[in-house]
Amino acid sequence: MTKTYVNRAPQDTRGSWLTYVGLSLVLLFSAFPVYWMFVISTSTDEAVAQIPPSVLPGGEFWTNANEVFTLNEVFFAASLINSVIVSSVITLSTLFFCSLAGFAFAKLRFRGRNALLVVVVLTLTVPSQLGIVALYIVMGKLGWNGSLLAVIAPGLVSAFGVFYMRQFIAHAVPDELVESARIDGALNLRVYWNIVLPAIRPALAVLGLLTFVMAWNDFQWPLIQLNGTDFPTSMVALSDLASGNYVIYRRVLAGAFIATVPLIVLLLIGGRQIVRGIMEGAVKS
């Protein structure tokens, strides 16, 4: 009996022109607020107030930026440095502790593992605003209120990060590979460092970028802790720029654009890693 093979033409997976038009419109509407912020930051007070508003950048960006950095009431340069410190420490700590906890939940067998994971996931349903008062009291007992330590400490680990890393490690690292390493005499930390970490680099990139952006944009808790201090974070400094009876929008949006540039650069550099990590997680699951 002979078998007949039918050569099928490969399917064209390219989208139609409607797909590209739709994606272009989404990109346009998503990027327009950033572009408009840049336009206002490069304009004068007269250009900001004119009707219809101008949609072309002006030539006053460096003047407006210089006002932001030299304003005595707001230490904007120091606030940017504080944001870099806070976001970097929180990101590195989250990557380490969440990947370590995710490894424990995914590959280690211990009593109460599933129940503890359920508790971790349930904490995602509790609004962070409910714990503000208790957290402030705890920071006061430690003597950290009004310092960067009080801003950093609550974000050193996240329940979302633990759950995300647990799910990724469970599918990305085979149990047989872990068991073979243990047979060779590797301890759990050696397995975590030499086997798990290299396998979850895409997930670490995704979690790191998301954590950095969230820490950079955090406003409520830094406002409670650092409002009135000389060196707040960038988001608190922007609120100080926008306070007062008369708001100079060109100056406020110049500061907002400057504070947004690091995030744009970070996303441009790591955007491919985000897509890769999300796609790998989707395929494995």
From TrEMBL:
| Alphabetic keyword roster | Cell membrane, Membrane, Transmembrane, Transmembrane helix, Transport
Q: Where is the ABC transmembrane type-1 domain?
A: 80-270
Location (main, coarse): membrane
- What broad taxonomic lineage does this protein's source fall under? Bacteria, Bacillati, Actinomycetota, Actinomycetes, Micromonosporales
- One GO biological process term: transmembrane transport
A Pfam family name for this chain? BPD_transp_1
GO cellular component entries: plasma membrane
Is the keyword Cell inner membrane in the record? no
Location(s), subcellular? Cell membrane
Q: Where are the transmembrane segments?
A: 17-38, 74-103, 115-138, 144-164, 191-216, 248-269
How is this protein named in the record?
Answer: Cellobiose transport system permease protein
Q: Per UniProt, what is the membrane topology?
A: Multi-pass membrane protein
Signal peptide positions on this chain: none
Membership in a protein family: Belongs to the binding-protein-dependent transport system permease family.
